Structures are given as C-alpha cells and as structure tokens.
Amino acid sequence: MRRALFARLFTPLRLALLAMVLTTPAMGAGLTSFGPLEAMQPLNAKVLADQIRQDGAQEVGRRLTREHEWPRVRRAVAAGWENWIVLVPDLIPVADPGTSRALQAALRRALIHNPRAVLSILDRKDDVPLGGKNICAPAAEPASWRPRALTAIREVHDIHLIDRGTGCLHALEEEKS
Fold first, then answer.
1. 41 contacts 47 by C-beta, under 8 angstroms
2. Where along the chain do its domains lie?
3. Which UniProt keywords apply (predicted)?
C-alpha cells in the first residue's frame, strides 16, 4: 500500500521537478541582457523603417552589413513586398556597390510582382541608381522576364506614375532593339 502511494506521488513529482529544471533557465534568459534590444527584435519592414527614422540610414546600413541581413532585405524586395520596396531609396545610397547592384536586381524582379510599388520609388532621372534605365533594363534577367515586366507595367493605371512607367517602358523597349 505504501509502495503504491509512493509510486503514484513519485511520477507526478518527478514530472514537476523535470519541468522546473527545464523552465528555470528559460525564465532567467528573459531577464539577462546579452546585447542591445534591437538584437532581439525580428527584422521586418516596420522595425527597419523605425530604425532608419531613429538612427539614420547610414547606421542602419552598417548594422545590416554587420548582422548579415542584406540578403533578407533583398529577398523581401524581390518578392514585391511594398513595405520593403519603399525603404530602398534610403538604403541604396548607404549600401556598398555590390549590395546596391543586388538591390537594383531585386527591384527588377519585384517589377513583375508589384509594378506600382517599384514605379513609385523610381527616380525621374535615368542616370541615378534608382533611375528607370538601371531598374527596368533586363540586365541578366531570363528571357521570360521582359514580356512579363512589359505586361505588369502596362497594367498600372496611375496618373502619378505615368512618366516613370513610360521611362521604364522605354528602357525595356531599348533593350529589345
């Protein structure tokens, strides 16, 4: 009888003890500071925009380089996510030349997914990193990209983007001839 009672109490007691052993370090980890608060925040467009406003694009660019986060930014831009695309004009000037070209390529890929967002950040001048000639010309894109980009741009009907859309179409047409 004593043995049965001991066995019934011992199993729940053992489980409770195991739970305490496993959760105590996890609870303490939340209290211990291992670095700046930013290091614990997931990188998303809102966090990045807030950091740019608060710390400046130059500092954010250094942080993206130090924490190897540029690839995540490029993937989000290439996917056509508007909240990331609008950050590119702040980030491209502070990126190294290779990263700047990679961001341009990401915008080129985003053109077929979200042409309105890409056109809205293009510069009216062609000879700048965000100019239509640099973004819309199909440099190193597969052959299937160009007709898809043409279709996507032609489907944007926004009076505020007409000149940028036209510049982008011209860059695409020049590449064809």
1. yes
2. 39-176
3. Signal
